[in-house]
Amino acid sequence: MSQPDNKTEEARSKGVLTADTIYRALLLGCASLIIVIVLAMLVVIGQGSLLSIREFGFHFLIGSVWDPVKGEFGALPFIYGTVVSSVIAVLIATPLSIGVAVFLVEQAPRSLARPIGFLVELLAAIPSVVYGLWAIFVLAPLLRVYVQPPLQAALGWTPFFKGTATGIGMFTGGLILAIMITPIITAVVRDILEAVPVTQREAALALGATKWETTKIVLANASSGIAGAVILGLGRAIGETMAVTMIIGNRPQISVSLFEPGYTIASVIANEFTEATGDLYLSALVEMGLILFVVTFVVTAVAKLLILSVGRKTRRTA
Amino acid sequence: MDKRRLTNSIMTTLTALCAFTVVGILVLIIGYIAIQGVSSLSPAFLIETPKPVGEGGGIGNAIVGSLILLGLASLVGIPLGIAIGTYLSELGDGWFGTVVRFVADSMIGIPSIVFGVFVYALVVLQQGYFSTLAGALALALIMIPIVTRTTEEIVRLVPKAMREGALALGAPEWRVTWDIVLPAARAGIATGAMLAVARVLGETAPLLFTAFGSRFYNIYLDEPMASMPVQIYNYAISPFEEWHAKAWAATLVLITLILVINIIVRYTTRRGY
Prior knowledge:
The structure holds two protein chains of two kinds. Chain A starts with a helix and ends with a helix. Chain A is flat and about 70 Å long. The mean pLDDT of chain A is 89. Chain A contains 13 helices and two strands, in the order αααββαααααααααα. By secondary structure, chain A is mostly helical. Helix content of chain B is 77%, strand content 0%. Chain B contains twelve helices and no strands. Chain B is globular and about 70 Å long. Chains A and B meet through helix 2, helix 4, helix 5, helix 6 and helix 7 of A and helix 1, helix 3, helix 4, helix 5 and helix 6 of B.
């Protein structure tokens, strides 16, 4: 035991405050604060939802009527819109992001990987409202003229591409979300691929595998981490507000066609919160926030655990 | 053998295509903003307040509002984030550190609009009015976990030998942290803080029903406050073409600020921690 340690120990047992105990207590206090904040969020948002939860109970989640005038609130169309737009986003962004990450880590020369990697990161820095503006005035008209008509001609017989193609709706919403979550998924997949030991690649190459076959092995070994990255992207897509609100059409309906307008949980909060007259209306919107809070918290937590599991595995084998 | 080579070159091309698609989208977005934005940008636009359609107007009050909101949010969010990050790096190897790290990570995943709902229920509903303070609080809450995580990562990079050296000379723990570890990681911590600032600079959703928005220059903290992203949103969803042009110009200003911060950060982090 060293001298100063004994002294601190002594001081502590006597209840004397040393500078170090204050230092530790201060940092511990700050650290505890973050837990307090999250708990406070749960309590305050939960309390705000109470009125709506008492009134509708479980029916809130399966009711499909949203009628503020009659005081009837069902979240199903919004849950549907959120799920569908997020799933479209993930379906598009996942292969794209893995492609980008593989290119950056496995294939591109350093001199190319650096600037491209930075540009992809910049995509994550663009604010949601800017994506929304761009989607309204650039993406939607482009899709309306060049993408939706051929899609309809080819796949119009399925129920997914019926109706008039206006450029506004679930399809465009999903697409803009895909662009927004691509840099997030890419960044995580990149980290994971970089964590896979070089020896694995060398072993595969030495056995005569092609570059792509080697990449496949690397990807397979990192699969749970990649799943984590995708789930992380899903969580982002679920909570994205501004861009989706500006482009998805904001009509609370459940339509199989992706060209039809939809509505998401985050969008209805953004649109109607300041206009909510009456306690029940406001409480229903706060309950929407509660759903969003709990779902994204859990989704992010699961994603983190998956990503961490890869880190641990590769470290062990390394 | 040939088939394998073929698959190999097809897949290599495809991944390159993915990368260039994504970069292409970025160029398309930034380029369009630059072209559209420049045509409506003028000194008056940067100074004036919003006016009815046909009478001009600008985003002067929104720029000032964003700066005030950011300043207040940084005042709370950055020191707190640095403190928590320091805790995680220096004292956080036990179970409690794991819990705090996990909560911070999950908090980063909470949608920004939920912070708006929280602050609305906590502050705005109690006080009965929208306010700058409420908006700043929402932004500060978003900043805390971001600064926490970047700080931890950076502070951990400070070599253990520096801590041990100072301790061996008889310095108490707090002096080691305050005089040795944090100064060594100063540049990295500043970088993380700047990234957090850039992130909340563009946040719209949490401000919609906390700071709300305003058509006037305002410095009072208990009144609604304009901000650039909210002003862009209001201009963008209006039916007037003149206002759409203003949305593009305001976006150019906002995106320039954000990109400049990101590029500075990139440039400085290249030189070690």
